């Protein structure tokens, strides 16, 4: 059946009844603007145009503008004018929109980054794969902060303004969460400026990865106006605080607290090492004669650290366990000591 032409008004559209086959009514005033009536009675505003600037061999495109009711006739007419005008200037709005629908969302980009892009971005170890624990915490921050706030957006829709808004939302605690996920597991997602800065750096690495693979033209994090660096920390424990800390550990040990956990905490305080550097410490890395520990695999590569006398004394008093080189071996299995409960931290 030949398509009808009539001036489209609310009255005309409301009176249009469904038929056995889908059909269209085309506006007599704006060529290419119409309404499509489905067999079930659904009515949709559409625009049609000739792509590639027009011409006898130009392909005809149809662009769905929106449902009748969600848009008024005049709103749809204005949008149709924009679409038809863009086509007359050589653009292809329908093809552009279909291409945009095929673009990756931020959530999909993060999935790709996890499988292909989790490499150190800066420093001496640039280009090396992240250590498993670093990757675990990085992906947790991305999934618990970025995905809830930006995950459904197309990657190409993210600009500096969206990054700045995202940063403020994390800073203001919009993604904070503390959920029990199992008998001995819990997810804790923190907010605040520190969490915002960490996940900002993580997301910037993801967007740099997207830029390298030509998924975006530039990294919007580079233009975002946010506080990108942590505050310089100059606070150290005083001797009195160290004594009180030691006394508290001694008291907890008398109450039955796990001595491995307490000795790990004592070494943190005495050496200034990172958490995992002490938890994963091996006897082969400890040199009692020189008073040093040489860590084979840290965030900055191999690293040698001095051991204070108190730390040497603590290590000398520890009993070595046969069959493992870990200073703090797990109670069961062949790994290092870990807490029984699993907590996923993000931020």
Order of adjacent strands in the largest pleated sheet: 1-2-3-4-5
Number of strands: 11
Within the CATH hierarchy, at the fold level, what is the topology of the largest domain? DNA polymerase, domain 1
Overall pLDDT = 86
Tell me the helix content: 25-40%
Main β-sheet, in a few words?
5 strands, mixed
Strand content: 15-25%
What distance lies between the first and last C-alpha atoms, to the nearest angstrom?
A: 62 Å
Domains counted in the coordinates: how many?
Answer: 3
> Would you identify the regions where 5 or more consecutive residues have pLDDT less than 50?
none
Q: What's the oligomerization state?
A: single chain
In the CATH hierarchy, what is the superfamily of the largest domain? Tyrosine recombinase, N-terminal domain
Describe this structure in words.
- It is a single chain.
- By secondary structure, the chain is an alpha+beta fold.
- The protein folds into 3 domains: 4-101, Double Stranded RNA Binding Domain, CATH 3.30.160; 106-222, DNA polymerase, domain 1, CATH 1.10.150; 239-339, Intergrase catalytic core (hpI Integrase, Chain A, Orthogonal Bundle).
- The protein has 11 helices and 11 strands.
- It has a 5-stranded mixed sheet with strand order 1-2-3-4-5. Strands 6-7-11 form a 3-stranded mixed sheet.
- The longest helix has 20 residues, at 193-212.
- The radius of gyration is 31 Å and the shape is elongated.
- The chain starts with a strand and ends with a strand.
């Amino acid at each position: 059946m030949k398509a009808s032409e009539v001036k489209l008004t609310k009255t005309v559209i409301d009176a249009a009844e469904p038929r056995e086959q889908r059909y269209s009514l085309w506006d007599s005033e704006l060529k290419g603007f119409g309404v499509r009536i489905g067999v079930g009675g659904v009515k949709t505003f559409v625009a049609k145009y000739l792509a590639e600037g027009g011409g006898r061999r130009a392909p005809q495109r149809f662009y769905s503008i929106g449902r009748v009711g969600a848009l008024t006739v005049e709103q749809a007419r204005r949008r149709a004018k924009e679409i038809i005008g863009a086509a007359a200037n050589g653009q292809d709005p329908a093809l552009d929109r279909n291409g945009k629908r095929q673009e990756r969302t931020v959530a999909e980009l993060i999935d790709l980054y996890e499988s292909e892009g989790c490499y150190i971005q800066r420093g001496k170890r640039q280009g090396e794969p992240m250590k498993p624990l670093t990757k675990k915490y990085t992906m947790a921050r991305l999934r618990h902060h970025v995905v809830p706030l930006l995950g459904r957006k197309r990657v190409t829709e993210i600009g500096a303004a969206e990054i700045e808004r995202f940063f403020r939302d994390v800073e203001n605690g919009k993604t904070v969460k503390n959920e029990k996920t199992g008998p001995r597991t819990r997810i804790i997602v923190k907010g605040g400026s520190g969490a915002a800065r960490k996940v900002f750096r993580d997301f910037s690495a993801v967007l740099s990865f997207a830029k390298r693979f030509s998924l975006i033209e530039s990294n919007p994090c580079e233009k975002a106006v946010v506080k990108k660096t942590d505050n310089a920390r100059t606070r150290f424990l005083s001797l009195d605080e160290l004594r009180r800390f030691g006394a508290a550990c001694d008291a907890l040990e008398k109450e039955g607290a796990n001595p491995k956990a307490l000795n790990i905490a004592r070494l943190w305080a005495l050496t200034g090492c990172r958490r995992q550097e002490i938890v994963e410490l091996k006897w082969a890395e400890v040199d009692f004669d020189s008073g040093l520990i040489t860590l084979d695999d840290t965030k900055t590569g191999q690293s040698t650290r001095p051991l204070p006398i108190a730390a040497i004394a603590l290590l000398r008093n520890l009993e070595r366990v046969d069959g493992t080189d870990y200073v703090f071996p797990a109670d069961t299995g062949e790994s290092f000591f870990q807490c029984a409960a699993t907590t996923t931290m993000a931020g």
